[in-house]
């Protein structure tokens, strides 16, 4: 037991802790996810966050100490997002035919996602800075933080809203699509990428290649449209 305590003290005080905890937790969660048949509620990202967050709270480990090691994995987020372009390249002729329709669908979907969130928050009496942080919730977290900063929101709060939106979409999308009898994989993927950005796109890739490809283009379109139009919209409203 004393050896274990000494090992824990050593790991928790070095960058090795965050890296090891993240890799081990995700590998175990992903293994359980595969063993269960990949149900949405067993999403490995969700349970990795829950497990690591619980460990940090129980052990009183500060987030900066954890992130000192986890940052080595965080750096891979950029290449992972860029890699989503490969399925799009394989379907480039199909995307050219549907380019205008996809752009319009992304614009309408993004407007519905942001508008409904802000309207609901306004009806509940949320402060203005919270509403501005809530608006980019369906854009991937790093971009949502930048947009929130531009329109007068709180970047950290925008990141929380974006992650929660992604997780809720990844967990509930299958049941909603089944309820609405939406069977086409391209439609499912595009809708999931529009609403739930990177986390939704990752879920779509695990289920079907076409769904993953269209989720990737939806993610990219939301980033582009929201970055350009959302600051203009809030400036006009102000």
Description:
- By secondary structure, this protein is mostly helical.
- The protein folds into two domains: 2-75, no CATH class; 82-237, no CATH class.
- It is 83% helix and 0% strand.
Which features characterize this protein?
about 240 residues; single chain; mainly alpha; 2 domains
Sum this structure up briefly.
With 238 residues, the protein is mainly α.
Task: Quickly give the structural class.
Answer: mainly alpha
Tell me the series of helices and strands, N- to C-terminal. HHHHHHHHHHHHH
Task: Report mean pLDDT, rounded to a whole number.
Answer: 82
- Number of structurally distinct domains: 2
Query: How would a crystallographer describe the biggest sheet?
Result: none
Percentage of residues in DSSP E strands: under 5%
Helix and strand topology:
Layout (H helix, E strand, L loop, with lengths): L1 H11 L3 H20 L8 H15 L4 H12 L2 H7 L1 H6 L1 H6 L1 H25 L4 H7 L6 H11 L3 H26 L4 H23 L1 H29 L1
Helix pairs in contact: 2-3, 2-4, 8-9, 8-12, 8-13, 9-11, 10-11, 10-13, 11-12, 12-13
């Amino acid at each position: 037991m004393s050896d274990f305590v000494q090992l824990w003290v050593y790991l928790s005080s070095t960058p090795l802790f965050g890296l090891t905890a993240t890799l081990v937790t995700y590998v175990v969660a992903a293994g359980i996810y595969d063993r269960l048949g990949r149900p949405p509620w067993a999403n490995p990202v969700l349970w990795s966050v829950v497990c690591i967050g619980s460990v940090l709270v129980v052990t009183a480990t500060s987030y900066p100490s954890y992130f000192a090691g986890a940052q080595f994995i965080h750096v891979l987020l950029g290449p992972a997002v860029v890699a989503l372009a490969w399925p799009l390249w394989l379907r480039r002729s199909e995307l050219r035919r549907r380019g205008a329709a996809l752009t319009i669908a992304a614009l309408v979907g993004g407007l519905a996602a942001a508008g409904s969130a802000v309207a609901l928050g306004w009806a509940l009496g949320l402060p203005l800075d919270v509403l501005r942080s809530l608006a980019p919730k369906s854009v991937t977290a790093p971009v949502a933080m930048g947009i929130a900063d531009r329109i007068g929101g709180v970047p950290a709060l925008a990141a929380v809203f974006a992650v929660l939106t992604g997780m809720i979409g990844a967990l509930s999308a299958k049941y909603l699509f089944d309820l609405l009898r939406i069977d086409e994989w391209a439609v499912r993927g595009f809708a999931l990428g529009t609403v739930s950005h990177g986390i939704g796109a990752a879920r779509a890739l695990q289920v079907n290649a076409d769904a993953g490809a269209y989720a990737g283009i939806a993610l990219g379109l939301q980033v582009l449209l929201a970055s350009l139009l959302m600051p203009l919209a809030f400036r006009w409203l102000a």
